[in-house]
Design goal:
The protein is mainly α. It has eight helices and no strands. Helix 3 crosses helix 7.
Length: about 170
């Protein structure tokens, strides 16, 4: 696929922040997220596919970012090395409100298939239809995963609150 420099710059400027948010939702590390987004754009440039619309490009890039993020998290190095600043998850470009940190930490412990739909839907504000296209699953499956993820989040938060209440009273 040949792409003009002008078109690439438009795509880069349009999707950079969204792709970074997806990567950061997985890695919780700014440097790793930047590397992942960079790799996604390199793969896009090397890709031989002809994309019909900008949305096709967007979905391709998001899928690459998700796969790169999962690969990094599964890597031997990432499993063995834990940096002290990675214990707390902060959402970029937002204040350091403890409740936001707690929600982000709770989302980070969800199974991958639930974490993915939550990140795409709530962090990136993607519609169910767009998530379905990106993940190559049905809209019904996306809705079900969102429903199950919300229930898991609710259960986790309720358990935490119950634990805090018990410990606070003792």
């Amino acid at each position: 696929m040949k792409i003009s420099e002008e078109k690439f710059n438009y795509i880069y400027d349009t999707y950079l922040q969204e792709l970074f948010n997806v990567a950061y939702g997985y890695t919780k590390n700014i440097d790793d997220s930047n590397d992942i987004v960079h790799n996604a754009f390199v793969k896009f440039l090397k890709c031989n596919s002809d994309f019909k619309t900008d949305n096709d490009i967007k979905f391709f890039l998001i899928r690459v970012v998700i796969n790169e993020s999962l690969d990094l998290l599964k890597s031997y190095y990432k499993r063995r090395v834990v940096k002290s600043d990675e214990f707390l998850l902060t959402i970029p470009d937002q204040n350091n409100d403890d409740s936001l940190d707690e929600i982000a930490n709770t989302v980070s412990v969800l199974p991958e298939k639930y974490k993915t739909v939550i990140i795409l839907h709530y962090y990136n504000l993607m519609k169910v239809k767009d998530i379905a296209i990106t993940l190559k699953i049905s809209e019904t499956a996306v809705k079900k995963r969102l429903e199950r993820a919300r229930k898991l989040l609710k259960d986790i938060i309720e358990r935490k609150l119950k634990w805090l209440k018990i410990n606070y009273l003792n």
